């Protein structure tokens, strides 16, 4: 391997050690080298981007093992000029929030917690179009990866059989006639064990609870980002009129 990469054996060993430290399982075989046997279900930028062929969405990714809130960090990055499509993703949030500043609880490393920075050419009063866009893209990606058909409860919740599976939170900065940026935050219950779901929350569920199978968060996230880019680029070309019909298909009301 060292010869193939034109580096020293010590350099190879150091990189293998780093992979192990972040959760990769690597076997060492004397005289044969190394074998990667397991990839961790971590939302690392290199693992996400390896699954993407997008040009805008997810080309810049900021990953945090722990963060106060992905929306808060995304807003900070947007104010600093982060490009459109920048993704902020976390394994755990200490102060996750939903609509009306309600707390959003989630255990570490089990669910999808991320925020997306968009810079659409839209007046502020049309921000809801982006919420529709993200909701539809998320429903489609979950159905592709899990066969669960979700419903959207206006304005920003995704349900499966009357139980909440995901929530969206949109925040934006604007001038009088144009959006400067929009932050769309998503919290999706993926591998949260049924017994761990909070008793005091509104009826909630997770993909694990509904399917009985642990699902790759990477697969769902990559599927969403790819689908989101397709819808977003279509909206840029044609306008947002088409998304209302798509949203109606999933509407709970």
Total of domains: 2
The percentage of residues in β strands lies in 15-25%
Structural class: alpha+beta
| Reported CATH architecture of the largest domain | 2-Layer Sandwich
> Roughly how many Å apart are the termini?
58 Å
Counted beta strands: 9
Give the radius of gyration.
Answer: 20 Å
Q: What labels describe this entry?
A:
253 residues; alpha+beta; BirA Bifunctional Protein, domain 2; two-stranded antiparallel ribbon; 9 strands
Give the SSE layout:
Blueprint: H1 2-5, H2 9-21, E1 25-29, E2 33-38, H3 45-49, E3 61-64, H4 70-79, E4 87-90, E5 112-118, H5 128-146, E6 151-153, E7 157-160, E8 163-174, E9 179-188, H6 207-211, H7 217-238, H8 241-250
Parallel strand pairs: 3-4
Antiparallel strand pairs: 1-2, 4-5, 5-9, 6-7, 7-8, 8-9
């Amino acid at each position: 391997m060292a010869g193939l990469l034109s580096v020293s054996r010590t350099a190879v060993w150091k990189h293998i050690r780093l992979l192990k430290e972040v959760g990769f399982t690597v076997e060492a075989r004397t005289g044969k080298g190394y074998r990667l046997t397991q990839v961790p279900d971590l939302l690392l930028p290199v693992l996400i981007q390896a699954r993407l062929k997008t040009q805008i969405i997810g080309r810049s990714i900021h990953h945090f093992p722990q963060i106060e809130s992905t929306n808060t960090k995304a807003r900070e990055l947007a104010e600093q000029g982060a490009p459109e499509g920048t993704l902020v993703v976390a394994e755990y949030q200490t102060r996750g929030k939903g609509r009306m500043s309600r707390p959003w609880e989630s255990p570490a490393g089990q669910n999808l917690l991320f925020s997306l920075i968009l810079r659409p050419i839209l007046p502020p009063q049309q921000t809801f179009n982006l919420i529709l866009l993200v909701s539809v893209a998320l429903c489609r990606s979950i159905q592709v990866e899990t066969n669960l058909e979700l419903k959207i409860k206006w304005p920003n919740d995704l349900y499966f059989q009357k139980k909440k599976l995901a929530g969206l939170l949109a925040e934006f900065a604007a001038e009088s006639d144009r959006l400067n940026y929009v932050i769309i935050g998503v919290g999706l219950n993926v591998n949260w064990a049924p017994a761990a779901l909070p008793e005091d929350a509104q009826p909630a569920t997770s993909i694990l609870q509904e399917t009985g199978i642990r699902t790759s968060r990477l697969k769902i996230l990559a599927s969403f980002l790819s689908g989101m880019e397709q819808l977003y680029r279509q909206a840029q070309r044609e306008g947002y009129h088409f998304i209302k019909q798509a949203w109606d298909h999933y509407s709970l009301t």
